[in-house]
Design goal:
By secondary structure, the protein is mainly α. The chain has one domain. Helix content is 81%, strand content 0%. The protein contains 17 helices and no strands. Helix 8 packs antiparallel against helix 9, helix 11 crosses helix 15 and helix 12 runs antiparallel to helix 14. The longest helix has 38 residues.
Length: 464
């Protein structure tokens, strides 16, 4: 397949204007953006199917929302490898060091296979106590256990899908991984609908059909991404002899990836605590369903931030590989101008028009609609800070400054988010809207701190 940007000279040009840099950022962010839109549609699709089951719709919606946290957890584990892979490959591309790119790719794919097998085994064997910890009530707990144990079989494919894609993006190719993920998401939506409702002579599986569609899609994605890096012609390519352990490369990967992994895991536990508090404070599961509806709809905004964070990480890494810190700075600021602008616009729409998508997701429950609308209005006011958090974190990770990002993120997530939710959710019992005020405030503060680190400039001196 064709790379979005084939050679370093296409990215590094003398006296580049802001317009040219923006064009390159959009070329990198565009495929990721499309990919994220499809991810969002998959989430909305699963939520819609769960909320429209003939029976136990609120329980099914709460279960699907909670399982989203486990899929997020898998992505965070993968980031401990993928972040290091992308940063090293980006710098290698900037320095025109192809053999290093291929070496990092081989080590990353091997680690992905091992990680997927280990985590999948743990989720299957310990599924029941893990689901008990979510504090889900009633039928929702059984639904979540079914989904989690089914998902565990697809884990090795899932980790390969994510990490191989990260390797290609680090090499400047965001188009090929995006094409694979678009295929995955389309397969996911069609399979879930078909198996949930019994289309084309297939059995009517109900809730299990949602999980089965996800598993089928992830297996397709894992195989496809493996073939992409196997047959790739540039950027990041997989060779069998590069998959055997190379300890110096592994050490470099872990030096960047471990802070990102620790950050992700600890942040996940804090956010998992948040969803457990929400599940516990409302036995009807209405608050949990509204919470996940809000996140699904907010993803319309933050997917643009994720896309430009990916572009910023690649451009910053390549710029630093060429020893051009000024260009790296400009790329990050321009990425925020573009991605942050979109997120601010989405925030305005959440504040003014949030009722309409909330009603579409849960048409038969006025209480859930009202809760979702209220939460969307709250988070709409902090999209500028959320964008700063996403995009400048991506730029710092692209520079290899993962330790600082970890420290700042954990400080606010544990110190403000988790502690604040415990206070307003459990001790004061103020309800879901109060929880979302805490979540929004934490995102805004974190964005300010991440931006301050970027402006301070210590990331320019990181050696990887």
């Amino acid at each position: 397949m064709t790379n979005v940007i084939a050679e370093p000279r296409d990215l590094i040009q003398p006296r580049e204007t802001n317009r040219l840099l923006l064009k390159q950022l959009f070329a990198l962010a565009g495929p990721v953006w499309i990919e994220q839109i499809l991810h969002m549609l998959v989430g909305l699709n699963d939520t819609y199917l769960a909320n429209h089951l003939p029976a136990h719709a609120a329980d099914a919606g709460a279960a699907v929302g909670t399982i989203t946290y486990f899929i997020w957890f898998i992505g965070l584990l993968v980031s401990s490898i993928g972040t290091g892979s992308a940063a090293l490959i980006a710098r290698a591309k900037g320095a025109m060091h192809r053999s290093l790119s291929n070496k990092v790719t081989g080590q990353s794919v091997s680690a992905a296979i091992i990680l997927g097998a280990v985590v999948g085994s743990i989720l299957f064997l310990a599924g029941r106590p893990i689901v008990d910890a979510t504090q889900l009530q009633g039928m929702a707990k059984g639904f979540a256990l079914e989904y989690l144990q089914m998902l565990s079989f697809a884990l090795p494919f899932t980790t390969v899908m994510f990490i191989a894609g990260a390797c290609r993006r680090g090499g400047g190719d965001t188009l090929t991984p995006a094409i694979v993920m678009v295929i995955v998401d389309i397969v996911n939506m069609i399979s879930s609908f078909a198996l949930t409702r019994g289309w084309w002579g297939l059995p009517v599986m109900g809730f299990q059909g949602i999980a089965a569609g996800t598993i089928i899609a992830y297996i397709v994605g894992g195989v496809a991404e493996f073939l992409v890096v196997w047959f790739g012609t540039s950027g990041a390519r997989l060779y069998i002899h590069r998959m055997w352990p190379h300890w110096h490369t592994i050490k470099r990967l872990l030096r960047i990836g471990i802070p990102a992994g620790i950050e992700g895991i600890l942040a996940w536990f804090a956010n998992f605590g948040v969803i457990a508090v929400i599940n516990r404070m409302d036995p009807t599961n209405a608050s949990s369903a509204a919470h996940m509806n809000t996140i699904r709809l907010e993803s319309i905004s933050f997917l643009s931030g994720i896309a430009f964070a990916t572009a910023a990480a690649t451009m910053v890494g390549i710029s630093l590989g060429r020893k051009d810190t000024a260009r790296a700075t400009r790329c990050a600021l321009l990425a925020y101008a573009a991605g942050g602008g979109v997120m601010i616009l989405c925030g305005i729409l959440m504040i003014t028009l949030g009722h309409y998508p909330a009603e579409w997701l849960s048409p038969n429950d006025p209480h859930i609609i009202a809760l979702t609308t209220r939460c969307l209005r709250i988070t709409g006011f902090v999209q500028s800070g959320f964008a700063a958090n996403l995009i400048f974190s991506g730029a710092l990770r692209g520079a290899g400054d993962t330790l600082t990002v970890m420290s700042l993120n954990l400080t606010t997530i544990i110190g403000l988010r988790f502690t604040g939710v415990l206070i307003v959710g459990l001790w004061l019992n103020l309800g879901l809207a109060a929880v979302w005020i805490v979540l929004a405030a934490e995102l805004f503060v974190r964005g300010i701190l991440i931006f301050a680190r970027f402006i301070q400039g210590g990331w320019k001196k990181i050696l990887i």
